[in-house]
Write a structure and sequence with these properties.
Elements lengths: L2 H6 L5 E3 L8 H9 L4 E4 L5 H14 L4 E6 L5 H10 L4 E5 L7 H6 L3 E6 L2 H10 L3 E5 L5 E2 L7 H11 L4 E4 L5 H9 L4 E4 L1 H4 L8 H7 L7 E4 L6 E4 L2 H11 L4 H8 L3 H7 L23 H27 L4
Parallel strand pairs: 1-9, 2-3, 3-4, 4-5, 5-6, 6-8, 8-9
Antiparallel strand pairs: 7-11, 10-11
Length: 321
Amino acid sequence: MNRICNLFGIKYPVIQGGMVWCSGWRLVTAVSNAGGLGLLGAGSMHPEMLQAQIEKCRSVTDKPFGVNVPLMYPEIDRLMQLIIDQKIKIVFTSGGNPKLWTQKLKDNGITVAHVVSSSKFAQKCVEAGVDAIVAEGFEAGGHDGREETTTMSLIPPVRQITDLPLMAAGGIGSGEAMLAAFALGADGVQIGTRFALTQESSGHDNYKNLCLTLEEGDTKLMLKKVMPTRLAKSAYASLIQAAEDRGASPDELLAIRGKGRAKKGMLEGDLENGELEIGQIAAQFRTQQSVADVMQSIIGGFRDGLTRLDQQVADVFGTNQ
């Protein structure tokens, strides 16, 4: 059995990224019910809201689901205690040192995966005792690593240093991309952008519809001096770009950014003043689909791609190789 499926108790090795303002209970349960693993995006939730979202999930699915927790979350102690008290079984952590919480979570029967942007941080995950690793390339939306290492360049070195179950993320939105990640050593994939643009995503329709018009090159990794973030083109992104071009300091960039920009853009649909976080792969999609249709497309694409690959191998090496 596939190691990711076995670890999380799911049908397909497809994890939905725990994206701020998009990963509410409707998206999470739709992904889990379709055979993947849905993750609540706790980074945009106060503990009380997270508890309500957990209760909603449990009321509509009996499938496994988890919680994604950015380790720089301001109420991290309360949030983690809530997760433990609620007997959540799966937690994905990101944006911090995995040693801080991994053992505490595992001591409470929780399976822990951590998201990394380099093999250096993957080694820290091994030392911290995580159960699985997500190797996320800088094609991804939202908060990325400063290294700007692509997903296809990141999977092999991470696989080289560890035999832990490994998921690939960043620029993956199809079964064919999933197959490519598997060829490089991944056991599963984490998909954000494509699920962010589904009907069940809690993102605002203005945000989703804008992202579904993006062309190649319409997203860019910005704010590297403070918190690297991939953004779609917008008036706000142009403001940040102008500040970075003139050499703005971290303090000035933080002042321009202010507070609540991601909520304003992604949840409330303010396309001028909001922060529109999305991955490069958005340029490949043009319509809002249901999660069920997306999952069917991904799994079907994986199987079709594998069939084509088998034929290509036969064409090159002969059927007896």
